[in-house]
Amino acid sequence: MLTISGKDTEGPYLPQENAAINTRNLDHTWIGDNKELEVKNKLALGFISKHPYRGLNFYAQPNPDNDSTIYTPNEKPYPEMAFPNTNYRLLGLFRFWNVINYFYPYKYAIGRPWDSVLNELIPQIIHATDTVSYHKAIAKMAASINDSHGGLWPQVYDTFTGKYSPSFDFRIIANKAVVVRADSSNPQSLIKTGSVIEAIDGVPLKRKIKAYWDYIPASNNGGKIKSLHYLLLNSKNKTALLSGYQRDRKKFKAIIDLKERDLLKEYKNFFEMESPITYRLLEDSIGYVFFSNINKQNIDSIMQPLMDTKAIIFDMRNYPTNGTGTYTIPQYLLGERKMYSRLTRPNFNLPGTFKYEVANKGTAYSEVGKLNPNFYKGKIILLVDSRTQSAAEWACMTLKTAANVTVIGNQTAGADGNVTRTVLPGGYRINFSGLGIYYPDGSETQRIGIHIDIPVSYTINDVINKTDPLLKTALEFINDKKINSD
């Protein structure tokens, strides 16, 4: 192949500026380590690694819709292959492994050597004997990068967890499922708001969580638990035996009907990420804003009444669908414009390297705020948890440019930046974060999430009694009371 391709005429290339950041994912040591390569081939490959072709690559290209992410238009999806043969299963693995190896900005932060992931997955892909075992193998593949933007479409979990789930909504706390909204169509059911479920069909939920853990794509433990809501109480049968205890601690066992349910479509409602409240004044001159309800029409009517309060609480446990609050709220909070983020994006001149620059470089969105002598002077509180993901984390970063910001809650999803994808045989698309997102000082957000100042966790009793320990702690902090956080 090297002979057919002809003489390499490109000049040497290696990015020098911010070299440690730009090249931390770059690893060509396999050339020297490979005992099967002849010396002349090692020399040729070593030369190519330092003299890369800088034209348009056939397989890996800048996305025409967003040139900061990878685009693979010439990778065939083979949608007719419900269960690809061994060769095509391996092709899918090698596609995925290489696109992560060269174009995933967080490869260095996965938590284990990327080579070891390949060695682990090859036998699982080869020995997949049917559609179910193939789905488990590619689910584990998608989860291997530890990214809450990761995942497979169409989703494959139903084939091994079952497609039937309960009608009620619940929260997973301490390896138990606490019902937050019961099925109103069956008032006689033993499953009520506040019921705590410990097992399904005799299997403790703790054991099920452990069994599914490695198949869940997420940046951290909180993200894993959030995604487990989609399948923890699933079954291949249309009924299930649930056991646990009620609010009064009495034990129960109940056989319930299950149904097909698309929790992704119900995502915001299921996780209580919607609210009729846009803003309100709380006790003693404290403002509260449900961040995702901000829009161009209401932003000034929200902020102006709050400018003389002693504190504003921004509830970030939701998903902002537009940039109004993200880019405009800082104009009320800052006296001057400030940078809020840096990023890394793929450098297509040398696959495996990245460009490190100010986020939204060259646009009006590279900074937030404005010259404003009358900016807000009170305390600013951000409430966050695992529901604070991606665009919500990005919004937190713009708000944290203000001087008096305190973040209260528990670990956010740790998946900022946009989503990109590649295709696998069988028509599956596998997702990952396409940009690396960092604070202005270069510190991490991926896997870590938004930096927490006052950690507070939820307990089973909080969920049963519908109390909000994050809001309670925020009020205590604003009023300079002693804080008892978990």
From TrEMBL:
<dbReference type="Pfam" id="PF03572">
    <property type="entry name" value="Peptidase_S41"/>
</dbReference>
<dbReference type="InterPro" id="IPR029045">
    <property type="entry name" value="ClpP/crotonase-like_dom_sf"/>
</dbReference>
<protein>
    <recommendedName>
        <fullName>Tail specific protease domain-containing protein</fullName>
    </recommendedName>
</protein>
<dbReference type="InterPro" id="IPR005151">
    <property type="entry name" value="Tail-specific_protease"/>
</dbReference>
<feature type="domain" description="Tail specific protease">
    <location>
        <begin position="286"/>
        <end position="456"/>
    </location>
</feature>
